[in-house]
Structure formats: C-alpha cells, structure tokens
Amino acid sequence: MSMKIGRNDPCWCGSGRKYKACHQRFDDRIQMVAATGRPVPNHEIIKNAEQIEKIKESCKVNIAILDYLEENIHEGMSTAEIDKIVYEMTTDMGGIPAPLNYQGYPYSVCTSLNDQVCHGFPSEKVVLKSGDIMNVDCSTILDGYFSDSSRMFCIGEIGEEKERLVRVTKECVEIGLREVKPWGFLGDMGQAVHDHAFANGYTVVREIGGHGVGLEFHEDPWVSYNSRRGEEMLLVPGMIFTIEPMVNMGGVEIYTDPANDWEVYTKDHKPSAQWEIMVLVTEDGNEVLCY
Ligand code: MF3
Ligand code: CO
C-alpha cells in the first residue's frame, strides 16, 4: 500500500475527491491493524462502486446459468452436455467461460461427482445416475470482470447420508457468511465454517480454498476454512471473495489424478460436497453477489 499520497491529492479509489476527505481515515485504520502484525488488504483488491456494478453484471450471467441447470439437469445426461450448455449460455450472453484455457484447463466448467472434490472434467462417459451428488462450478468473464460460484445437484434418490452432507455443507457457507463484516477478520468466517462441519462429523479440505475475485479470477486473499477467529486478513468494505468450502464425509486427505493433474478426489473415496458464493464486504455487513 502506498503511503505517499498527500492529503490534498486525489484519492486512490478514483472518486475524484481529495484523499483527506475520502480514504485517508480508512487507510489509517488499516495501518493500525497492520501494526499488530496481521495481514491487511492492499488497494488493488478494494473495489470501487463502478467496478462492483460491472462485477455484478458478470454475476448475473453466472447465476442465470446455474439457475438454468437447476431446472434442466437430469438422470441420463452426460456431464459433457453440461459443459456445452455452459459454453453456449455464457457466450450467448456476451461472456467467456473463465475456466476455459485457464492454466490449461480444457473445459468451460467443472463437474465434480461424489468422491471428486473439485475440478472434475466434463465427459461424454460420465452419465448422471440416481444417487449421484455433483458440484457444478461455474465462472464467467464479462467485459473483463469475473464471477465465480458453484452449487450441488442431487440426482434421483441420494439417500440420507449424502443428503445430510450436501445440506450441512450449504449451512457451513451460510454460517460463515454471518461472520463477514467490515473490520472483522477472514478467520472469523473460516473458523465458523470449520466448526460447523466438524460438529457434524465431517472434515474440511485444507489444501484448496477460496479467493479474492472480480478484477481477476483469483486474487488475494487466499481463503482458508482451517483458520481461527481473529486471524487471517482484515476485512474492509469493497473486498470481494469466495466462500467455497469442500467438505468431506470421511477423511481430510485428497489427491490429484496424475493422469491430468486437475481432478481432485478424496483419498478414502467417500463423498465430498461444495457450495460456493461470492461475497462483498459492505459498510455495515456483507452482500452476496453470486451463488
Ligand atoms: N471455479 C474454481 C474456483 O472456485 C476454479 C477452477 S480452476 C479451473 O476457484 F481452471 F478449473 F477453472
Ligand atoms: Co472459486
């Protein structure tokens, strides 16, 4: 963070107002927390009103796709068909699927079934059947702005055990969300997520977390759910990040398929679930931008 702005210089946020009348007190408050040794956000990840509006437009595309899939996913459908729907809907709405070619990822969406933790490849060979639980992780670039969210889809009769995993994972996100407020800490959310999963006998994946998002696909901060209250990055208005815990029915251990270096599975092959939302820190709490 640059501390070199003069009191009468224009504010870094782009408001056109003088620094002293805009974000100077805000920056002073951040610096007081930084002095305690905790990580604090830099200006690059604090979004202004104009950027937030653009990001919300991107979110609308993402939400529309997941809403459509909720109505149309069915037993007997292949996950390759889901990939095709995501590509076509995104481009029809003027967007680009963010996963496509991202670090070499070869599809428009991630479809992760049962013991797949994340980054599942859509495939003609993966045909949805009764009892499957699937995460569809959808991300959009619209006019250069990024959105990212995912939901669980339950096919036919999944049984009580999987139903509980899917429900508790969603509750983890909702309970974590309540902890997102300005001048709190990311660890307030992380611990709330972890504690709820743990109280239900589940584990939360450690290696893969959430992230800042909006101007890039993946920005700071990295978002852990194995963090402690009062720890991790300070939250300030204008930050946008994902809450996307991967909750395992069994052990916490995972591995990546060496055949493609993408698809992640639970080591014990028990099911894993994930829901992902994008949240904006506001002046008085938070706002969910994408789900
Ligand atoms: N959408 C995923 C996330 O939540 C990112 C997947 S990386 C990809 O961060 F390349 F597979 F898209
Ligand atoms: Co994400």
Notable characteristics:
about 290 residues, alpha+beta, 5 helices, binds 2-amino-4-trifluoromethylsulfanyl-butyric acid, binds cobalt (II) ion
Helix-strand blueprint:
Elements: H1 24-34, H2 49-72, H3 79-92, E1 96-97, E2 110-113, E3 116-118, E4 133-142, E5 145-154, H4 159-177, H5 186-199, E6 203-204, E7 210-212, E8 219-223, E9 240-243, E10 246-248, E11 254-256, E12 264-266, E13 272-274, E14 277-281, E15 286-290
Antiparallel strand pairs: 1-4, 2-4, 3-12, 4-5, 6-10, 7-8, 9-14, 10-13, 11-12, 14-15
This protein binds 2-amino-4-trifluoromethylsulfanyl-butyric acid and cobalt (II) ion (CO).
Residues 99, 102-103, 105, 110, 119, 137, 139, 148, 211, 244, 276 line the site of 2-amino-4-trifluoromethylsulfanyl-butyric acid (MF3).
